[in-house]
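quick one, 545 residues, struct below
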Amino acid sequence: MKRTRYIFLALTLVLCLGVVFTASAAGKLTAKQMMIDRLQDADLIPIGDINKTSSGSASYEVKAISGALATTIEPVAKLAGADLLLDYELDSPGNKMAMNYLLNYADGKYSGGMFMDGSRCIFTNEILSLLNNIQEGIMPADPPTYLYMDNPSFVDMWENMNNGQYLPPGLKELMLFCAEAIPDQYFKVSLTSQRVSFALDQKGLEDVTLAILNKVAGEKERFATLVADYIAYSGGQQEAIDMIREEILGSIEQSINDGSYPNTAADVENIMAGMITLKELKYEAPIILPGQHNFTMTLDLGGGPEFSSQFVIKSDFTSGKEVLDGTYTVDAKINIDEGEQNQGIIVVMEGKFNQTGQSSQSNGTIEVNVQDYSTGTTMLDLLIEGHGDAVVDKNVQVDIPIITPTNSMDLMEIALVGNEITANTAAYPTVILNGSPIIFDVEPDMIQVENGGRLLVPLRTLAESLGYEVEWVAPDQVNIVYGDKIMNMFVNRTVYLVDSEERQLDAPPTIKNDRIMVPLRFVAEELGCSVQYDGDSNTVVIYSH
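---
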């Protein structure tokens, strides 16, 4: 499992590099250095104010929908004839944006506003009517005028826009780390055609992945810092950056020490076999901007009897300091064979785009076709068209509503209100982690101890939902690994260890249907979470830090 995790991390970064290189060109004669230089100042956005002070609009329309799902699933059926119109004003230097929407959906019209102000996103309460149409019970009895959510990562988004960057700095640094490891043989430059290229096939992907994994092992402190920086900033967890770094570093060191870290060509080949096949990844660009860029990637995932898929991405565009103009196509084919049910899914996205420093236009379509081969039934045939345009508006005025405790509510509270309306009458509470329910594969138990009731839940589901590893050591020990720390618990024993330090709990772990059951509040708090119980809705709310 650990080997697979590191392989997929390296693969993700390699494939991201392939996509990012579609925005690259260069000015030096070493092909690899050209790519690295372009990543250093990755500037796909043309110079100008279109991403600073502008106004624009966008529209999306369901042009066609048919199939069994369109007649049997009510929310899908309601999409027939739906269209969405958006108008917005952007003031990125002021960290503000205002957007009005008008949605025609299910014979009804829904209009409202959305606003961004620094790290806060604000909605007018009309959106609750729409959500209630899709799923009844969301609308509170006395809805506030505004709903809001806070996310510190929005601040970094504004900074990137103001700096003309399309890549978050943390992601760019990670890609630079990987680019440094790629062998020179996969970069080519032609002075005759004035072109630079980067190309991989399956063997090349395995070589590059191994090179990156070896670089990670050799520079694990730097890599852990880069990943922690990116995760912390993008997830709004800056206060947890040291803990994230130590967790990543500890995991790498442990896998190296126990021999599970993939560090040979055979390791990489064996893990990829039957799971990932890169048929082609090729990018060509001019040495001198502006010029024509060409990118194509064909990637197969799965390949087994139950699941297989193929993704083909192509883009041709002209890029320079004054213009970005081109086309793209994304073609995905997925086959799922589960014995009695054999389905095929095809998704095709196509579009054109043009952007200068003063204006932008885009047009695109999304087609979705779902077939049930076992019955010969068309499950879904869907076509959506979209269009957008924007112009620079140096005098743009973005008005943000004033939020007060009496006229607004946090979206998390709305989620809890929804739980109150659709009251949970089960014998055990609903468990919400960071706004999303945790689905347990074994039903939790309520037990009584001297100090009151305890909710026992499957340990593996809880710990892995929080991002931790769980290891079973026969006959009765279970380990929870988080960063460089390890917690040892024992079935039917109240004693447990944290880094070999002995501690006590008041409800011992038990076994139910081959699952280790542990007291939820105790374990969640031991792993650094805050836990709250709402008796009215019979809901446990967990926030990870």
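The longest helix spans residues 2-20.
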